[in-house]
Design a protein that fits this description.
mainly alpha
Length: about 425
């Protein structure tokens, strides 16, 4: 084990200690949740990174996912022609997000709805929910929602809609945090398209990260707001409550329609937030120029620079080498205001331009960025969950800010776990 692996190991416990400062009921924190929250991540990471069978399985899963992603391009190319040809292939106009990556969400949303209709996703979610209930001792409702978040998006909350009204605040925080700390399978292919040209094995890492993030999100939620009540479904494994389509064709139509809404929403968020950030940056830069004139020095001020300094200690703590820490901290900070889409794009650019020296930095960043842990998604998850239970809007709105904080820490813990088990000899690396 090298020095960077030890740094990653120590940071896992340092981040947990950091969370204790913000805990609202320190004496009620469940040791069982902490121990199993860490152990589940460790056991899965050992299987993926260190055990040959696990590594080969996830390499196969990576190749399978890449094949599915390639299939998604059939419809995209039919619709957009040469504009859909990805970079590096003959006739490609270069990378165009709107024509090459965003449309893949429609395909994956339809695929997920189809898998849900035939019962595959339901069985998979049930397996994870049973594990979380049995070993972590949490309620069946929050375990089911957290498990669904590994594969679905905001629609995961529909799986526990009948229970939302009576949920404790601790349960609600788990629902919001797991939603913001994980990614939906419908956008996984989108990220793969962005990163695959420079990071061929990224699909396996993204799947691994999404699974690791669920117990991490439960862990941080239960530290910040431990359970002080008695959940209705405590210790029970409950069934998925989700209205399925009546037939396969309807499932595909519903999934594709949902995908279109997601594409429009993501595109709108990127246009709005990136534009607003540029506007604010202009104002901050002007203030920096005025300060520089007064003191006769050059002052480089921007939102990205400020966030880079804020997230720099967390980046080093996860085990990113010093030489890469500044660049990685910048894109991690960028995620909280401009979404993980922009951050993954910038990570791909850094890799392509050779500005990332160490491979472990890429792996850690991929895990740390794998979540909807940003301000734009705060409105989506708070608004979406509140629409299901309007009477809990006040509680959900307050908990939303805690969930944003908790989800970021969960991502950092997962990044540190990846850094701990990364040895440079794993199969799930860049090829």
């Amino acid at each position: 084990m090298g020095i960077y692996n030890l740094v990653s190991l120590s940071s896992i416990f340092a981040l947990i200690g950091f969370l204790l400062i913000f805990s609202r009921e320190r004496r009620r924190i469940s040791i069982k949740v902490i121990v199993w929250g860490i152990l589940l991540q460790f056991l899965f990471a050992v299987f993926v990174f260190l055990i040959p069978v696990g590594t080969k399985l996830f390499l196969l899963l990576n190749d399978f996912t890449m094949g599915v992603v390639e299939s998604s391009f059939a419809g995209i190319r039919f619709l957009f022609g040469p504009l859909a040809i990805p970079p590096g292939k003959e006739g490609s106009p270069g990378f165009i997000l709107a024509f090459q990556a965003l449309p893949s969400i429609i395909f994956f949303a339809a695929l997920m709805e189809l898998l849900y209709h035939i019962g595959f996703m339901e069985k998979l979610i049930h397996i994870f929910a049973r594990i979380f209930v049995r070993v972590m001792g949490i309620s069946g409702a929050e375990a089911l929602c957290a498990s669904a978040q590994i594969f679905l998006g905001i629609e995961s909350n529909l799986t526990v809609k009948p229970y939302l009204r009576e949920m404790t605040q601790s349960e609600l925080l788990v629902v919001l945090t797991t939603g913001m700390a994980t990614i939906a399978s419908s956008v996984l292919g989108f990220y793969v398209i962005i990163l695959a040209p420079t990071f061929p094995a990224v699909a396996g890492h993204l799947i691994s990260a999404s699974i690791l993030l669920a117990p991490a999100a439960i862990l941080v939620s239960k530290i910040i707001l431990p359970e002080t009540g008695t959940p209705l479904t405590l210790g029970k494994v409950i069934k998925v409550e989700y209205v399925k389509a009546s037939n396969v064709i309807e499932a595909i139509i519903n999934g594709a329609t949902t995908g279109v809404r997601m594409v429009v929403a993501i595109g709108a968020l990127l246009i709005a937030f990136i534009g607003l950030i540029a506007l604010i940056d202009s104002g901050i830069a002007y203030c920096g120029m005025l300060v520089g004139k007064v003191f006769g020095v050059h002052v480089d001020m921007s939102i990205h620079t400020i966030l880079q300094y804020i997230f720099y200690p967390f980046t080093l703590a996860m085990g990113v080498p010093f030489e890469d820490a500044s660049a990685i901290a910048r894109i991690i900070g960028e995620r909280i205001i401009a979404t993980e889409v922009k951050s993954y794009q910038d990570l791909a650019i850094l890799i392509k331009e050779g500005k990332i020296i160490y491979e472990r930095s890429v792996v850690i960043a991929t895990y740390a960025l794998c979540g909807f842990a940003h301000i734009p998604s705060l409105a989506i998850f708070v608004g979406g969950t509140s629409s299901l239970v309007p009477e809990r809007t006040k509680d959900i709105s307050i908990l939303g800010l805690w969930a944003l904080f908790a989800s970021n820490i969960a991502c950092f813990i997962t990044g540190a776990v990846a850094g701990l088990f990364y040895t440079g000899g794993s199969g799930l690396l860049m090829k």
